[in-house]
Design a protein that fits this description.
By secondary structure, the protein is an alpha/beta fold. It has 2 domains: 3-220, Spore Coat Polysaccharide Biosynthesis Protein SpsA, Chain A, CATH 3.90.550.10; 227-390, Hexapeptide repeat proteins (UDP N-Acetylglucosamine Acyltransferase, domain 1). It has 7 helices and 39 strands. Helix 5 (174-181) packs across helix 6. The radius of gyration is 31 Å and the shape is elongated. The protein binds uridine-diphosphate-N-acetylglucosamine and calcium ion (CA). Uridine-diphosphate-N-acetylglucosamine is lined by residues 8, 10-11, 51, 72, 75-78, 80-81, 99-101, 135-136, 149, 151, 165-168, 194-196, 222.
Amino acid sequence: MSLKVVILAAGKGTRMKSAMPKVLHRVAHKPMVEHVIDAAASLGASGTVLVIGHGADQVRATVSRQVDYVEQTEQLGTGHAVQQAMPMLDADDTVLVAYGDVPLTKPETLGKLVDDVSASNLALLTVVMDEPHGYGRIVRDTGGKVLGIVEQKDATGEQLKINEVNTGILAAKASVLGELLGKIDNNNVQQEYYLTDIFELAVGQGMTVTTHNPDYEWETAGVNSRLQLAELERIYQRNQADDLMTAGVTLRDPNRIDIRGKLTVGQDSIIDVNCIFEGVVNIAENVTIGSNCLISNATIEAGTVIKANTVIEDSIVGENCTIGPFARLRPGAELAEDAHIGNFVEIKKSTIAKGSKVNHLSYVGDSTVGAGVNIGAGTITCNYDGANKHQTVIEDGVFIGSCTQLVAPVVIGENAVVGAGSTITKAVDANQLAFTRAAVKTVDNWPRPVKKQKSEK
Ligand code: UD1
Ligand code: CA
C-alpha cells in the first residue's frame, strides 16, 4: 500500500483580504499548507499532490517541501479539485484528501482514516457541532450507517437539524475515488462538483463509510479570516507550551511564549514571559531565560542565565554563562562556560573562552578571546576598515581597560594589560602594559557658562 495525500489549496481566501494566497499565511511562522504537508509526511506518504489555483505561482515559489503540483484553473468545486489530482495517483494508492487551510490536524487522526481504507470502504472525519450552520451534514440511516453528505444549501429542513458535520477530510482507494468522481455532476444549488457526493454514490454501489472524530475540535478548524488565523496560532502555541511544561520546564505564563520552529528544553529550565524562539533552538537543563528574549537557531548549555531583553541569533552559549540584560549575540558568537556578557554588549562571529567577561557597552566582532579575559566597559573591536573585516586576538588573562579601541588586525598577548581609553593599533606582547594617552591639561578658575534668564531671550 502506498499512501498519497491530495491537499486542496486552490481557493482564493477572499476574507483574508490579502494579496497572498490563503494557504501561505503562517501559523508559527510556517505557511499553513506546510503544516499539512508535514503531517502527511509524518504518516509516511510516498507523495503529496497540491491542487493550486489562486496565486499558484506564489504557492510554488514559497512552499519549500518536495510536492507535486496540479493546477485547477477554475474552482468548480471540491470534487473537481480532487479530479485534477487523479492523473498523479496510481489505482492502488490509498489517498488522503486534506485542506491547505486546515493546518492543525494531528497525524494520528489522519492515520485512523488511512487505516480504514479498503476497496469497499471509505473513511471520513466528522465532528459534532452545536452550531453546524454552513457545513455539509452527515446523513445516516436509523441504524447509524452513513448514507451520504448533504451540503447546507441543498439540505431539507429536517437535514439541517443534523449536527454531525463533514470536516472535508477523507480517505479512499484511488481507484474508488477515480471511479466515483467520474460520476458526480454539478446539479445542485451551487452548481459545483461536490466531493461530498461520492459518499452517496459509494453507498449505492454497496460500499461502506466509516467515520472518525478528531480528539480536539481545533484539529479540523479551517482558516477563512485573519481572526481565525490568530485563534489557531494561539491554540498551536498553547499546545507547544503545554508539551514543554509536561516535559519539566517552568513557563511563567504558558500563554505568553511563542515558538516558531523547533524548541527543545531540558528539565528545570525556567522561561519568563514574552520570549520568542525561532528556527531550531536547543536549551539544556537548569537554564533561566528572562522576559522578552528573542532566541533564534541557538544552543544554550546547562545552568546558563539569560536575562531580560536579550537577543541571540545563530550562536552557541556554553554552561553556566550569564548573558544580558539587553545583550545581543549575533551570528557566530560562541561562548565557552562561565562567560559573562552584560548589558548593551554585542558579540559577532567571535569565540569567548572560559570565564571571560564583557560586562558593559562593548562591541566584540571577528575576535578570538581567550580564557579569563576582562574587557572593560565601552571597548570596541574596530573590525571593519570600510572595505574588509579584520581579526582581533585577545589571549588568555588579558585585561582591557574601559573605552579601549582595538584596531584590527591586532593581537594582545597573554596576560597583557591595556590602559583605559587606549587606541591600540599594533600588537601587544605577553605581560606588557600598553596604553595611549593624551596629556591632561588644566585651566585654573574656569568661568562656567551661566544660564540666560527667560526675559533676556
Ligand atoms: C466543504 C464541504 C462541506 C464541509 C466543509 C468543511 C464540499 C462540497 N463541501 O464545504 O461538506 O462541511 O468543506 O469546511 O466539499 N477548493 C478548491 N477548489 C475548488 C473548491 C474548493 O481547491 O474548486 C478548496 C478551497 O480552497 C478550500 C476547500 O477546498 O480550501 C473547501 O472548499 P470550500 O468551498 O470552502 O468548501 P465548503 O463550501 O466550505
Ligand atoms: Ca469552507
